[in-house]
Here is the input.
Amino acid sequence: MASPAEITIGPKRVGASYPAYVIAEAGANHNRDFDVARRLIDTAADAGADAVKFQTYSGTTLYSTKTPRFDYLGDLGAKPAHELLEAIALPRDWQPLLAAHARDVGIEFLSSPFDYAAVDELDAINVAAFKIASFEIVDLGLIRYAASKGRPMIFSTGMCTMGEIDEALLVAREAGAAELALLQCASLYPAPAGVMNLRSIPAMAAAFGVPVGLSDHTRGVHIAAAAIAVGATLIEKHFTLDRTMIGPDHPFAIEPKELADMIAYIRDVEAALGDGVKRGPSPQESVEMYTKARRSIVAAAPIAAGTVVTEAMLCVKRPGFGIAPKLMEAVVGRVAQRDIEYDDILVWDMF
Here is the structure.
């Protein structure tokens, strides 16, 4: 079993010692079109994501019919929330087929359960983990039921206090979920960069001793890549085949090329972080830059054989394979053993 600071999702370990686990969030961007859903899976796999995630809900069990309309949805918000969500919900009988397709193309199939039946349905198709959305983290009954299945659980924490997070983790552990992870999140669609608070990622990791990542609703891909530098071990990002498609999640989602770029940037940032130990030149630098682009002592004028060298005869220039500049005083006063031309790079056997 993974340590508390690590979890296992399918065949992959998730934690500080491993590459960040990237979840491509398809959400409702399938538009209830099975072919679009399959293409979303293919796109996520082609981009190099570790998992593709959908959402399993029913509008009528998720929202009261008395729910006020959401202003941020614009014209889409003219429809009551329960009707809108019902209209865009993933048909549940698609899930085994989509999960099978995901296996065929080599990517993990995940979905967020929003009701007890969804937990059972996803458990039946052997999802590798349960992802609990930010809004549901206060539904301790749902968390307890999902945790009873014994699968790893990932919690988004948009709008959550530290106390609410602690309570959700405690309930999950008590119900049987041993492997838990958190995602920092701002529950705005899209979210401005100024509310993302990436520094909360290492803070939550230290406080709760679990892997912590980012569920990113900002526009673009730079915030997700930046999260790696502060220790994010998971990244979740909404994506779509086309931002101009109609639906609540398309406008702030990234498109296929952006998804591929984001994952490439994440891997670049991981490679760039290194191990924190400051060393001398890397092997790549030593090939050319170390010897040709550093400085050494050079003749500032012709120096005839037998001449006692003065400081005025010397200067410091590139390249760097001559006598080091710090040894200037050791060169001054020596006698030239042969004629030295202007701009010659000085070496010890010249004296």
